[in-house]
Amino acid sequence: MAFRNVAIRVFFLLLVVSAAFAKDKEEKKEDKKDEKTEGAASEADGTYDITKLGAKDDGKTDCTKEVEEAWASACGGTGKQTIVIPKGDFLTGPLNFTGPCKGDSVTIKLEGNLLASNDLAKYKSNWIEIMRVKNLAITGKGTLDGQGKAVWTKNSCAKSYDCKILPNSLVLDFCDDALIEGITILNSKFFHLNIYECKGVTVKDVIVSAPGDSPNTDGIHMGDSSKVTIMDTKIGVGDDCISIGPGSKEVNISGVTCGPGHGISVGSLGRYKDEKDVTDVTVKNCVLKGSTNGLRIKSYEDAKSPVVASNFHYENVQMDDVGYPIIIDQKYCPNKICTSKGDSARVTVKDVTFTNITGTSSTPEAVSLLCSDKKPCEGVTMNDVKIEYTGKNNKTMAVCTNAKVTAKGVDKANSCDA
């Protein structure tokens, strides 16, 4: 009986020691886990704050390493991941955010300001390039500042096709289901936002800003992308406010204010070989102020390959002192660096509707339809178009060549039949 009691006591003692050993082992395991994640995340819930990685908000210290470390942690995590750029100024060189990511989504919460380095030797191409990421969001009240003023004089693209391209500020490549909301994109060295080979991108409540004389600073450019929505956004830049490049389809633009800039443009088309068609573009409820062009479709006369631009619908657009409010230009030739000896029949423009386009023009040519003699514009419809030249010495006019137009409720001065 005594032996039995001793055995029971030994058994329970072993259980206690074993439990204590297991607990100690688990605690050490957790400690090691914490060591791995310490400095990588501000919290244990997939939120990564760059200042907790060591980023300095003085606008002078290079924070490239800390921002890319935050991306690597977020993209490699599961569930919903968030990168926080808190208030302050953070200088970086080129940032490459590459997926696919493991989790459900990645949000970059931009509350402070990211500043692009002006050391051009650091850049192979763009400043912030996000590639092959699904369910991406960039939100907040912060700024992406390209600091382009210091390098705009190095842009020689007005003189040569073979110019060295300065870095675009924000580039989305092969990204699906992306949201860019609330942020400001400022003074890019080249394009502010470039969307390429993406599907399902929404740009909402964004400000894009650069001086009107800054070279090639397109606000938002897209190419080979579908289901792109731009809404309630203010754009004032030195080139196209929005440029819709080859291969774009199902594009919806609404509530956009443009100016300064070169307008809301389709194209240019035909510059490169094997460009894809552009189709299903809607522009509604927009305002253009002091831009050099308004609603524009542009293509090269010496197009390299056949391209079709079709099914465009422009509605409820207000012009305020716009250079050429409505313009289709199939003889586009910027800075005289192209040739007009090519086959002008290679670009087709058809099925374009302008409805309720009103306001003022800063040139007499409120309507310019400059279409190809070999391939006239087809299916152009104008409903309730009334634009008035604000000058005193010349009357408002429509200049139309090789365009087949159906008009209803159009002011006489804006009619191709005038």
TrEMBL record:
Keywords assigned: Cell wall, Cell wall biogenesis/degradation, Glycosidase, Hydrolase, Secreted, Signal
EC number(s)?
3.2.1.67
Say which domain of life the source belongs to. Eukaryota
Is Signal among the key words of this record?
yes
Q: Which reaction does it catalyse?
A: [(1->4)-alpha-D-galacturonosyl](n) + H2O = alpha-D-galacturonate + [(1->4)-alpha-D-galacturonosyl](n-1)
An example molecular function term from Gene Ontology annotations: polygalacturonase activity
Compartments, as annotated in UniProt: Secreted, Cell wall
Q: Which GO terms describe its biological process?
A: carbohydrate metabolic process; cell wall organization
Leader sequence range is 1-22
Xref: InterPro entries: Glyco_hydro_28, PbH1, Pectin_lyas_fold, Pectin_lyase_fold/virulence
- Location (main, coarse): secreted
Name the active site residues.
262
What is the purpose of this protein?
Answer: May function in depolymerizing pectin during pollen development, germination, and tube growth. Acts as an exo-polygalacturonase.
Q: Which family does the entry's similarity section mention?
A: Belongs to the glycosyl hydrolase 28 family.
Name assigned to this protein: Exopolygalacturonase
Organism equals Lolium multiflorum (Italian ryegrass)
